[in-house]
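User: Run a structure prediction on this.
Assistant: Running it now.
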Amino acid sequence: MPPTVSSASPQGTVGTPLSFCVDATATDPLSYNLKGAPPGMTIAGTGCITWSTPTFGTFAVTVIAQDTLTGLTGSGVVTVSIVKPGPGIAATPMTGVAGQALTGSIAFTDSAATVLSISISGVPSGLSFVVSGNMLNANWASPATGTYSLQVTVVDSQKITTTATIPLTISAQ
């Protein structure tokens, strides 16, 4: 009976090493080969696939398992999806007291972008932002009591979008 190789759909990120093992069964030991693999993707004798520097795209790679005693082969398709890293948003919930100045910051990261477009909705009256490098510094001279949700959206030069909700709570004096 020939070996069976299960199909799989692993995902990764551009430039981040990827490693996963295929599920193959046979009564005897197996050897493995790849057909249609992108440059740099390899498979070990254990059935584990590695790709040290994945590139963007979706790749249908055929894994061929051969029974080392009978010579019979089986195959399965592994569809590997590699996405571009998108923008990151880092911020902690902001809290303050009504009438007392509030400051906070929102940090942005994106290793693959040359330009970031940032929009924020849900901003209460009086809250302002100043750009400083990869950060927006929030300033509110006299916050009003309430619970607010800042909806931050970042679009990078590759048109990849990330959205985050940042809670803002102002308690009474």
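Residues 88-171 form a domain with the Immunoglobulin-like fold (CATH 2.60.40.10).
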